[in-house]
Amino acid sequence: SSELAKPVDIFDKTDYQKIYNQIATKLREEDEYDNYIGYGPVLVRIAWHASGTFRPHEKIPAGTYGGTMRFDKELDDPSNMGLRNAFNFLKPIYDENKDKISHGDLITLGGVCAIQEMQGPKIPWRSGRKDLPFDKTPENGRLPDASRDATYVRNYYHGLNFLDDKEIVALLGAHCLGKTHLKNSGYEGPWGAASNMFTNEFFKNLLNEKWELKTNEAGNKQWDSPKGYMMLPTDMALVQDNKFKKLVEQFANDEQYFFKVFSKSFSKLIENGIEFPENRKVWLFKTLDEQEE
Ligand code: CCH
User: Fold this and answer.
1) Euclidean distance between the first and final Cα of the chain, in Å?
2) Which alpha helices (DSSP H) does 30-82 contain, by range?
3) Mean pLDDT score, 72-97
4) Which residue is catalytic, options 48, 103, 175, 191?
5) Cβ contact 131:122 at 8 Å
6) CA angle, 125 as apex, 67 and 57 as ends, to 5°?
7) Which residues have C-beta within 8 Å of that of residue 279, sequence separation ≥ 6?
8) Is the pLDDT of residue 7 over 80?
9) Does 49 participate in catalysis according to the annotation?
10) What CATH class is the domain 13-142+263-292?
């Protein structure tokens, strides 16, 4: 049985909205990153990779609580190639606010901010994670293997306490964002046309594009389409499994429904293993656009 991480005291919602705004402003300013995709996708990915180390049955269940992504041991996990860009993006904001925010809180708030600023759903967020020392850094190799099939994907997410297919398929919808980079992962290409907009395009493309299995320059198998989009084997697993496929169809047809399930699932992902006190408030932050209205 696991000893759930206990959150620390926190500051006011307005303090965190300020930090949110710093992240959002920097996202707007440094828009040239990765051929003008910007830092949004890689911020979402670092929040998810900080979360994906969680294992429910450990005494100290890893995940986002301890902010151990700040240690080279975790950042240098081969699965985390490219995430140092996200970490370095957040570093000056951490330095400016270190009396108010831990690394785990900042990395998760970065993901929430990026999703919202890229027109995605509102993601409920709570503060209270506390930096743990180096010896609490999980071992490498806990993130999923992109070359696998539907059974592997389902089992992998069961291991993160996601038992419902709906949550799993929704989470994978984040692959509407960004791209794969040969030098990072051994895969190459974007999943769609709008790499810095949070939409249900991933599901539409899975169903509607003409996919062909190719071996890429790194010798890995990926699915390519004539429009220059790609899918990982684990992405294609979502239409190779009938139960997953029904959900892909639902999300492709109803973006609001996808947003609703994604929001809940991502919030759960970044809070895995943390036992918030019952009175700990859940916050929804305003986007920069909403504040400018
Ligand atoms: Fe992912 N993802 N992801 N992913 N991912 C990659 C990039 C992004 C897998 C493999 C890869 C989620 C789940 C999975 C993002 C968000 C999420 C890459 C390319 C691989 C490989 C990395 C590179 O080359 O730079 C696999 C396997 C799974 C199985 O579950 C989940 C869940 C999320 C978020 C909720 C985002 C965003 C990116 C783009 C990053 C960028 O830099 O553009």
Assistant:
1) 48
2) 33-36, 40-51, 72-75
3) 98
4) 191
5) no
6) 55
7) none
8) no
9) yes
10) mainly alpha
Cα separation, 222 vs 216, whole angstroms: 7
Q: What residue type is 276 in one-letter code?
A: F
| Encoded tokens for 285 | 């932050």
Neighbours of 172 (CB within 10 A): 25
- Fold agreement (13-142+263-292, 150-257): no
Interface ipTM above 0.85: yes
Task: Tell me if residue 103 is catalytic.
Answer: no
Strands 212-215 and 189-190: unpaired
Distances (CA, A) of 100 to 106, 162, 240: 10, 31, 46
What CATH number is given for 150-257 in this structure? 1.10.420.10
- For a mutational test of ligand 1's pocket, the pick from 35, 42, 45, i.e. the residue with the most ligand atoms closer than 8 A to its C-beta, is 45
Domain ranges of the chain: 13-142+263-292, 150-257
Ligand 1 proximal residues by C-beta, below 6 Å? 41-42, 44-45, 48, 82, 144, 146, 171-172, 174-175, 177-181, 184-185, 187, 232, 234, 266
Question: How sure is the predictor about 276, in pLDDT bands with cuts at 50, 70 and 90?
Answer: confident
